[in-house]
Amino acid sequence: MEFKKTLACLHIGARLKAFLTDLFLIYTPILYFTTYVILGSAQAFRENQLAILSCVCVYGVINALFISKSGQTPGLRYTGLMVLDQQGQPMGLGRACVRFVLWLVVASTLIGFFTPFFSKDKRFLHDVLCQTQVKRVLES
């Protein structure tokens, strides 16, 4: 029962849907532009680690801009979720960038994905470290 309650608090389905939406709306065009307009071919992209890192950084900055401006990326808006600080306000750009970098670390190591199951506030590690929360918002 506790496991299901934790999953409900995390909005797992909505977060996954938001993530996939953002990948297709934001990250895929960045990858396409870099691969075919800047580098000219998929082979050149695969061989250029700096281009791959640059795409991730550009995506991170765009993501952070959305989060800092309104608390929502297009995917979060679509799913009705919002990232807020502890006072219920959208966070600043610097903190949003740090949250993205921490999310990359958490996602690549999988360590931080288990913290909601062992903490009372039911948040992922990157949200705990950045003192943020993901809440469902009402559509008007």
Describe, in short, the structure shown.
The protein is mainly alpha-helical. The chain has helices at residues 2-10, 12-39, 42-47, 49-70, 74-79, 93-109, 125-130; strands at 81-85, 132-136. The chain has one domain.
Topology of this protein?
Elements: H1 2-10, H2 12-39, H3 42-47, H4 49-70, H5 74-79, E1 81-85, H6 93-109, H7 125-130, E2 132-136
Antiparallel strand pairs: 1-2
Which characteristics define this entry?
140 residues; single chain; 7 helices; two-stranded antiparallel sheet; globular; 2 strands; transmembrane helix; Pra-immunoreactive; mainly alpha; transmembrane
How would you spell out the order of helices and strands? HHHHHEHHE
Rg (C-alpha, Å) = 16 Å
Largest sheet: 2 strands, antiparallel
- Counting DSSP H or I runs of 4 or more residues, the number of helices is 7
Largest sheet, spatial ordering of strands: 1-2
Strand content: 5-15%
Count of folded domains: 1
Helix content: 55-70%
Spans where pLDDT lies below 50 across 5 or more residues: none
> Which structural class best describes the helix and strand composition?
mainly alpha
Q: What distance separates the N and C termini?
A: 32 Å
- What value does the average pLDDT take? 89
Number of strands: 2
- The dominant shape is globular
